[in-house]
Amino acid sequence: MTTPARLRIGNFEPAAPVVLAPMAGVTNAPFRTMCRRFAPGLVYVNEMVMATAVVHGNAKTERMMTFTADERPRSLQVYGSDPVMLGEAIRKLCAEDRVDHVDMNFGCPAAKVTRKGGGAAVPAKPNLLRAILRSAVAAATPYGVPVTIKFRKGLYDDLLTHLTTGRIAAEEGVAAIALHARTAEQHYAGDADWRAIAELKQAVPEIPVLGNGDIWEAADAVRMMRETGCDGVVVGRGCLGRPWLFRDLADALSGRPVQPAPLLGEACAVMADHARLLADHLGENLALRDFRKHASWYLTGYPVGGETRRRFAMVSTLAELDDLIAAVDPATTLVPGGERIHRGHTNGPIRVALPDGYLTHLDDLEIPDDAAEMAVSGG
Ligand SMILES: Cc1cc2nc3c(=O)[nH]c(=O)nc-3n(C[C@H](O)[C@H](O)[C@H](O)COP(=O)(O)O)c2cc1C
Predict the structure, then answer these.
(1) Options 35, 94, 108, 239, the catalytic residue
(2) Catalytic site residue 239?
């Protein structure tokens, strides 16, 4: 196989052209540490933080912005649609040397965001998008911090904006662009449309184009790069409960053989380590509540039975988790196709919520009010 051209984001050249997708409530420091153990040297993006919260400061956002001492690049996704607020947030992050890379989210389909004209609604307004990107790039550039953006194909099938978004991003000095190849209306339903990734690569040849959507196994990434000509892949749900996917991706994209899926005992050992890191990060009580979703993802595809699954989904302490793990058969193998069982978000389509009359004046520069959007999750 041919070795793909190397991906660069700013000065950073990852060991393989692979990026962990930002996932709210998931891609915190413990999760990224687990992934990095399997594949150091890739780009692992932190969960999204709100620009307003960065500027005004609050304890929760501070904790969300934690990077471990050895983590490079420190990649953070910032959400905002007010050019001034966003510029201020990025300038602060850079001046305080908190980040090495800023990603921005223009794909969030959550109703409370798009209803105000933010998230996935922004790319429908090219002038607004341009103003936001100009402000973000101007804030980050003096510090040598690259800005990347992540977006969807558009709001609906008859309002596709990915090509104009990509062109504007390249013109405004964005370092790389990532396309989640679904519309906001599709949400997470149906297959991602990889042809749109190929189109985007053709339309924006001058900066790296990253493809996102439906990479469940390493072979999918190889196929996406071959079929679309994209410069790298962004991986979300496929790594939930499977941090070793990054090792598999790095292996496959470097032409090395991919290791077989772990036995349940091996998956559970990783699960136990992950839970301990999360307990150090959040405190055991909060961590174990949050860990329940991870526990169910780690078990996905292993035939452990409904009762065991239910017990893991109610785990409250590390000791209890250890007892549950001790009771499973470590030699259990993943069912064929277990990697492809969807996890995380699967629903859709949705009705996209927009401000009244939003689509009548697409050239305007009206700034969405995102001051109240302190707790959104999604892309
Ligand atoms: C739980 C969850 C949270 C997400 N949060 C964000 C987010 O904060 N920002 C973002 O840009 N995308 C977010 N996404 C979307 C993913 O980054 C990614 O674009 C999407 O899952 C499609 O990729 P996949 O098929 O590899 O999962 C989220 C997805 C999931 C499943």
Answers:
(1) 108
(2) no
